[in-house]
Write a structure and sequence with these properties.
The complex is a heterodimer of chains A (135) and B (437). With 135 residues, chain A is of the alpha/beta class. Chain A is 27% helix and 30% strand. Chain A has a single domain, classed as Barwin-like endoglucanases (Beta Barrel), CATH 2.40.40.20. Chain A contains 5 helices and 6 strands; from the N terminus they run E-H-H-E-H-E-E-E-H-E-H. Chain B folds into 3 domains: 45 residues; 205 residues, 3-Layer(aba) Sandwich (Rossmann fold), CATH 3.40.50; 167 residues, Dimethylsulfoxide Reductase, domain 2 (3-Layer(aba) Sandwich). Classes of the chains: A alpha/beta (135), B alpha/beta (437).
Chain lengths: 135, 437
């Protein structure tokens, strides 16, 4: 049982993400849709964790807590998928390599179990990472 | 008595469905039901009716609370911010109509801003490639009526453009495609077995980030030349099978998405995808089309291009238009700390930019014009709610194939709420007074 695994992180749209952004990004549904990492069943085994556990995803660019869910669009061993949104954007590679386009797909990340740490709401996460004062 | 409005345009994705039906109350103030739209479009129409919607501008106070302000005060703050800034960034523009975009671009010129749309994090690299080698493309109507070979490369319309396949690309019975899905062969290229890939005749599960290699291998396969046993995780025989399938069609189309534009290689992926299309035209008729995301990101590119000559990342800070993605693009400007104010309309960079860029927005004077509460609005100094384009105000929008379609107004906005165009026009007028333009 490994304490952490390395995955190749990609992000992108899901239909649940689309519904959640139109339904209100301040709502918990946004976190349910996008505060997740979709992983292959074989990667769950490697990490030694049940599905729907919270995990910490860390790259060279940042770190974020998300819920690990079993992918519905697999198999894709070795690939982690976080739907586009603040959770993915906390860890993806922002380098544009002089094209203007950040590298949203293909960031090596470390995934470790973080059972007792909470997944923040989308707005809460952005405000915290930006140091914005809230009431 | 309720009434049903037909032929409504859906303001969600670049498919710009034009067959939505909406049931509204007799007085035209309440939107009650939505038919024909996908689940995302339906949610967009219905969310405009939410009881907790913000309907007055609000300023973020030092203690973290919000203070309601009038539209006059919001116009004044925005105009003052843009007048004082040496090099403001004006970003977004994809979730509004072309009329508002045009006024916004005029404001950008007066305030010597960098004007950028969401292509910067979407199909910006496509636009670079198109400028490099051109784009043999067509309309979605031609796809529906003619295409018997459909390739989805690095895109997942089952999730991102939910009605694209039923309206245009896979299922409809067109003039030369009378058997609908039976008339078409579907090839999907994606590192995941997406819901789109599950429907494919051939799914090439490419190694993530190796699209360039695979596209190159296809060009070799078309010519029947030697290939290594495996390219980008795909066995050579499977590449040859896909190549033969493409060549044997009467009319083919490659749709491509973020899988290629956002992976390493970026614009070079698109360069070679267009070269593949060019090669295929030696054997049959082939086209290629980007799967544009926002319903009017294409329109923003069109309006910027006819006003300033470039489709996105336009730098007007020297008083004339410059364009150099990597230098004049939003994320590079923000990360390098080159802008001193941020104006966002019709987009949510707070949710969709890398956090390093979002942090910079939070540190600067900032205005967010958006009907929704978003991460951007919650880190901005001023949030200006506006009417929903395509629901509460009409206007011109461009579909992903560059066909302009007029969106329709179906209900009245909440009383006193301005449209994007009205708010921008007032800012433009005030700004002109301030800078003496």
């Amino acid at each position: 049982m490994a304490k952490e695994i390395t995955l190749n992180l990609i992000s992108g749209r899901t239909i649940q993400q689309g519904v959640a952004i139109e339904g209100g990004k301040e709502k918990p549904l946004y976190r349910t849709a996008c505060g997740i990492i979709e992983m292959d069943p074989s990667d769950f085994k490697k990490l030694g964790v049940w599905k729907n556990s919270n995990v910490r995803v860390t790259s060279n660019y940042g770190s974020v807590i998300v819920k690990a869910t079993e992918t519905s669009q697999g198999p894709h061993p070795g690939i982690g998928f976080i739907p586009m949104g603040p959770w993915a954007n906390s860890v993806i590679n922002p380098d544009t390599y002089s094209t203007g386009m950040p590298t949203f797909k293909g960031t090596p990340v470390k995934v470790e179990v973080a059972m007792n740490e909470p997944v923040l709401l989308g707005i809460e996460l952005v405000q915290k990472l930006c140091g914005v004062k809230t009431a | 008595m309720t009434k049903t409005v037909t032929d409504v345009i859906c303001p969600f994705c670049g498919t710009l469905c034009d067959d939505v039906e909406v049931v509204v109350s007799d007085d035209g103030k309440k939107l009650l039901e939505v038919a024909n739209a996908c689940v995302i479009g339906t949610e967009k129409f219905l969310h405009s009716q939410a009881s907790d919607r913000v309907i007055r501008p609000r300023m973020h106070q030092d203690d973290g609370t919000w203070k309601e302000v009038s539209y006059d005060e919001a116009v004044e703050y925005t105009a003052q911010m843009l007048a004082k800034a040496k090099k403001p960034l004006m970003y977004g523009w994809s979730s509004t109509n072309c009329e508002a975009q045009s006024v916004g671009n005029e404001i950008a010129e007066i305030s010597r801003a960098c004007c950028d749309n969401t292509a910067a994090v979407c199909h910006g690299t496509t636009l670079i490639a198109v400028q490099d080698i051109g784009l043999p493309t067509c309309t979605l109507g031609e796809v529906k009526n003619r295409a018997d070979r459909v390739i989805f490369w690095g895109c997942n319309p089952a999730h991102a453009h939910p009605r694209h396949m039923s309206r245009y690309s896979i299922f409809p019975r067109g003039f030369f495609t009378g058997k609908g899905q039976m008339s078409r062969k579907l090839i999907v290229v994606d590192p995941r077995v997406t819901d789109t890939a599950k429907m494919a005749d051939v799914h090439l599960q490419v190694e993530q980030g190796k699209d360039y290699e695979l596209l190159n291998a296809l060009r070799v396969a078309f010519r029947g030349e030697w290939l290594p046993d495996v390219v980008a995780g795909i066995p050579a025989e499977k590449i040859r099978e896909a190549a033969d399938m493409m060549k044997s069609g009467r009319f083919g189309i490659i749709f491509f998405g973020m899988g290629v534009t956002q992976s390493l290689s970026k614009n070079h992926n698109i360069d070679i995808a267009i070269a593949v299309t060019k090669d295929l035209n030696e054997y049959t008729k082939f086209s290629i089309m980007p799967m544009r995301g926002h319903y009017n990101v294409t329109g923003s590119g069109e309006v910027l291009a006819w006003q300033y000559g470039f489709p996105y990342s336009v730098d007007l800070s020297r008083g004339f238009a410059r364009y150099n993605p990597g230098e004049t693009s939003s994320n590079d400007l923000l990360v390098r700390g080159e802008v001193d104010a941020v104006f966002v309309l019709g987009s949510d960079p707070g949710a969709h930019f890398p956090i390093s860029s979002v942090r910079k927005i939070a540190q600067l004077p900032s205005v967010c014009v958006d009907p929704h509460i978003t991460p951007t609005s919650e880190i901005s100094k001023l949030h200006v709610p506006v009417a929903f384009v395509g629901v509460e105000v009409g206007g011109n929008c461009y579909r992903m194939d560059n066909v302009p379609i007029d969106a329709r107004k179906v209900v009245e906005p909440p009383e006193g709420v301005l449209t994007d165009e009205e708010f921008l026009t007032r800012v433009n007028k005030r700004l002109a007074e301030l800078v003496g333009a």
